[in-house]
Design goal:
The protein is α/β, with parallel strands linked by helices. It has a domain of about 170 residues: 3-Layer(aba) Sandwich (Rossmann fold). Helices cover about 30% and strands about 20% of the residues. The strands form two sheets. Strands 1, 2, 3, 4, 5, 8, 9, 10 and 11 form a nine-stranded mixed sheet that branches. The longest helix has 19 residues. The radius of gyration is 21 Å and the shape is globular.
């Protein structure tokens, strides 16, 4: 008895290998004001593969990088970032890296913009955000982050830090200063997430970038070439070389103690 041949379907969608987009770096750094987040990201200008750079200034403050040859776009709301995203997609290759400096400021810009929108109900306070307003800002910011994540450029971003103590477990959580939901989930949009801090030792200031989650600090490193858990006085040269080129830096002695003592 003849058996009818079943036509097998073709491969679904696009089939690729793991890390097929490894040539692009997705990096988020967060920390207190003044620890050097902006300077760290702007040091991408020292990496030929990351230049030229388009710097999206949501914090409206670039004094610390005034010596850098970087194109700057002031960001005053979501529409400005949407235009930047469309531009880099439509002019692929003109810029190798987009830096969004100030996700925390951008989030509150979106909330303020939401308060001015006419579709808010009349009984809502025009000066006090509701839960719906915060959810609106959370969703819009996540959409724009995902848009840059999938754009043909390296994507670097900064945020302030938020420290919270769980009232029931007494666990201390250190995360990016965004909405509670977005702070928990934003790391999924980046390949590398680092907490930047400054430590004083023997009258010397040392910048510490933590790239692995411990001590209550959120961090992440899913690059093929694993960077050390902690980098001392980091630069984008070190981060790019480790993540993309596999050139790992030598970890200086005593760095782990700087973190554990904090």
């Amino acid at each position: 008895m003849a058996v009818a041949k079943v036509k097998l379907p073709s491969k679904p969608l696009e089939v690729v290998k793991p890390n097929y987009n490894l040539k692009y770096l997705r990096f988020l750094v967060y920390g207190e004001t003044g620890v050097g987040k902006t300077v760290l990201c702007a040091s991408a200008a020292d990496v030929p593969q990351l230049s030229p750079i388009l710097f999206c200034d949501a914090d409206l403050g670039t004094m610390s990088i005034s010596d850098r040859d970087i194109d700057v776009v002031p960001i005053r709301g979501m529409d400005d970032l949407i235009n930047v995203n469309r531009y880099v997609r439509g002019h692929e290759g003109e810029y190798q890296t987009v830096i969004v400096d100030g996700l925390t400021s951008l989030y509150y810009q979106m909330i303020r913009q939401r308060l001015r929108e006419p579709d808010r109900t009349k009984n809502e306070d025009p000066y006090v955000p509701s839960q719906r307003d915060y959810l609106h800002g959370t969703f819009r910011l996540r959409v724009i982050i995902q848009a840059f994540k999938t754009a043909p450029v390296n994507f670097l971003a900064t945020a302030l830090v938020d420290v919270r103590q769980d009232e029931f477990t007494d666990i201390r959580r250190v995360r990016p200063a965004l909405s509670n939901k977005l702070a928990q989930e934003v790391g999924a949009e980046f390949d590398v997430v680092g907490h930047l801090s400054v430590r004083a030792q023997m009258q010397t200031l040392t910048r510490i970038l933590q790239l692995e989650p411990y001590g209550g600090r959120g961090a992440k490193n899913r690059s093929v070439y694993k960077l050390p858990a902690v980098l001392q006085n980091p630069t984008m040269t070190t981060i790019y070389n480790g993540c993309i080129l596999g050139i790992l830096p030598e970890l200086e002695k005593g760095v782990e103690s700087l973190i554990s003592a904090k």
